[in-house]
């Protein structure tokens, strides 16, 4: 008996070491990919700059011309896309893990659409722009998520009920946005449409700093809030039996996820499908590691950098908003997921 027990313990230890090694390897690979895409984004453009000169400029030893191009023109867009991807990847994985459904990402259940309503109302109705527009988008996300939560409340919040209500609110939000755009001036409507597609055009260091500050607050809060997530994924009754304050923990996690979504949308508009695809991909890369939140966040950053690079340099001679490319990536995945769910008779 003791020999068999020792063998079982040894097998579990090896499996744990293998899983940890894979987790570290995937994380390092994603970090290297992000750094590589960041340098490539700063190097490529109308005026190409060698990689070595880009690195020297980032380290503070480049010449004045390279400093202007890299630091003033290209870096704000690249780091904004990186941070937006981090926030959306983490928010999407949180929603999906908390509600135990791969369709439960913020762009599927109305949170990003609510942010869009807030921004469009502010732009069309009051003519605001810049930081005020971003604040309006964040307020819209918070207000919409609160409405969805209240409508889904029935002595608790069930995942499927929240998702269905969120889809309904998303449809209503899209109708409101369409009405506002059709009743506004052509120039305002065109600018709003570009923003609603999801765009990093016009990114600046001044607009980046509020995003950075928000993420420096939200990321630590989220890492604290996720401690009971494993128990919540087992079901409310099991989590309560383990001593987890279910509704309080769920509300805290949802608030963190909504905050991450809101600040990301405020910075770049409602970029489609980034939050949707990162969680499932991360769980495939690191199986058996629960929500894989760190990996999902890094995948979001890498996806945003790749998509924005493609939107600027690889799609014909026209620069597209980054949301166009992420939609080209995410829409086929959504169709695949729906077909798979229909085939196996499950929701994901």
From TrEMBL:
GO cellular component: plasma membrane
InterPro entries: ABC_BtuC-like, ABC_transptr_permease_BtuC
GO molecular function: transmembrane transporter activity
Entry keywords, A to Z: Cell membrane, Membrane, Transmembrane, Transmembrane helix, Transport
One GO BP: siderophore-iron import into cell
Segments traversing the membrane: 20-40, 78-99, 119-150, 162-181, 207-226, 252-277, 320-339
Name of the molecule in the record: Iron chelate uptake ABC transporter family permease subunit
Membrane topology designation: Multi-pass membrane protein
Family membership: Belongs to the binding-protein-dependent transport system permease family. FecCD subfamily.
Keyword Membrane: yes
Highest taxon of source: Bacteria
Record's subcellular location: Cell membrane
Keyword Transmembrane: yes
Residue stretches in coiled coil: none
């Amino acid at each position: 008996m003791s020999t068999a027990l020792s063998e079982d313990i040894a097998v579990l230890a090896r499996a744990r070491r293998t899983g940890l090694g894979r987790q570290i390897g995937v994380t390092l690979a994603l970090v290297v990919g992000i750094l590589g895409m960041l340098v490539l984004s700063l190097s490529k453009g109308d005026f190409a700059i060698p990689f070595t000169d880009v690195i020297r400029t980032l380290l503070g030893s480049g010449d004045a011309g390279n400093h202007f191009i890299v630091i003033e023109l290209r870096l704000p867009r690249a780091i904004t896309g990186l941070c937006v991807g981090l926030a959306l990847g983490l928010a999407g994985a949180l929603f999906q893990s908390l509600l135990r459904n791969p369709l439960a990402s913020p762009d599927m259940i109305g949170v990003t659409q609510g942010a869009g309503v807030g921004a469009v109302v502010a732009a069309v109705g009051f003519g605001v722009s810049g930081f005020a527009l971003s604040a309006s988008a964040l307020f819209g996300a918070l207000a919409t998520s609160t409405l969805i939560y209240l409508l889904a409340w029935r002595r608790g919040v069930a995942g499927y009920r929240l998702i269905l209500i969120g889809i309904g609110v998303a449809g209503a939000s899209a109708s409101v946005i369409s009405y506002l755009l059709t009743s506004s001036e052509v120039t305002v409507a065109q600018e709003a449409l570009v923003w609603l597609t999801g765009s990093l055009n016009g990114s600046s260091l001044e607009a980046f700093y509020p995003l950075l500050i928000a993420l420096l607050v939200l990321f630590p809060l989220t890492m604290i809030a996720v401690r009971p997530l494993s128990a919540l994924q087992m079901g409310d009754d099991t989590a309560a039996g383990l001593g987890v304050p279910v509704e309080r923990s769920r509300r805290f996690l949802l608030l963190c996820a909504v905050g991450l979504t809101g600040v990301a949308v405020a910075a770049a508009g409602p970029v489609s499908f980034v939050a949707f695809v990162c969680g499932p991909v991360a769980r495939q890369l690191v199986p058996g590691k629960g929500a894989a939140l760190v990996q999902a966040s890094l995948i979001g950053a890498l996806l945003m950098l790749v998509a924005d690079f493609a939107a600027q340099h690889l799609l014909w001679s026209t620069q597209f908003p980054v949301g166009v490319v992420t939609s080209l990536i995410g829409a086929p995945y959504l169709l695949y997921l729906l077909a798979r769910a229909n085939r196996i008779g499950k929701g994901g």
